[in-house]
Amino acid sequence: MEMGTGVGEYGEAMGRKPASHADLEALPENVVGEIVAGELYVSPRPASRHALASSRMGAILLGSFDLGARGPGGWVILDEPELHFGEDVLVPDLAGWRRERMPVFPDVAAFELAPDWACEVLSPSTARLNREAKLPVYAREGVGHLWLLDPRARTLEALRLEGGRYMPLAVHEGTARVRAEPFEALELELALLWG
Asked: Nearest 5°: CA angle at 31, between 13 and 147?
């Protein structure tokens, strides 16, 4: 997402008092608001490269892992779910829950159950937010795998949570065909993500 509002390099604090859910509700509909460690971060809707990479990644994983078409199934995969972890509110580009952890899909505005996997699509203005502010929250909440997808650099970075910290598994580049945890049952063709 390209950042357009906020103060500082990657949407620093919008005010000095801790941000609240009321602050999120007051935002216009054409932006994404997140609260991390009491700070409100505001991003405009995704730019074209970001939207393409996220949409295509979601489509690939949804077919094989959520719907089980030509794949193992066993997951619920969602675009931009709102996650509430105490006072923190995160909106990953994609997130997935193993069906054994979410056997009944809830009818909720926001999810309190941490996903098993999340994917953040990086842009020059959000990379630091995603890496420095959001990663510790995902780790604290026990999100087992995290992918960082960078459509400009054409990379997919796969991370696994071990001992409360994310450990790099691999950085896949360009047009490679890869198998990445936790979806290693499917070979991903990275070229499809870049357009």
From this structure: 80
| Predicted TM-score of the model (pTM) | 0.88
Residues whose CB falls within 8 Å of the CB of residue 165, separated by 6 or more in sequence, listed in order? 139
In a domain, 58, yes or no: yes
Which residues, 6 or more positions from 48, have their beta carbon under 8 angstroms from its beta carbon?
none
User: Under a CB-based contact definition with an 8 Å cutoff, are residues 139 and 164 in contact?
Assistant: yes
What tokens were used for 90?
């995160």
Which CATH number is 135's domain given?
3.90.1570.10
Q: Are strands 117-121 and 145-150 parallel, antiparallel or unpaired?
A: parallel
Give how far Cα 66 sits from Cα of 70, 83, 126, Å. 11, 19, 28
Q: Indicate the helix (H) or strand (E) that contains 139.
A: helix 135-141
- Non-local (6+) Cβ contacts of 106 within 8 A are none
Residue 138 lies in a domain: yes
Q: Do the Cβ atoms of 120 and 93 come closer than 8 Å?
A: yes
Find residue 173's DSSP bridge partners. 155
Per-residue pLDDT tens digits for 3-49: 333 433 344 444 468 999 899 999 998 888 999 999 999 988 888 89
How many other β-carbons are positioned within 10 Å of the β-carbon of residue 162? 11
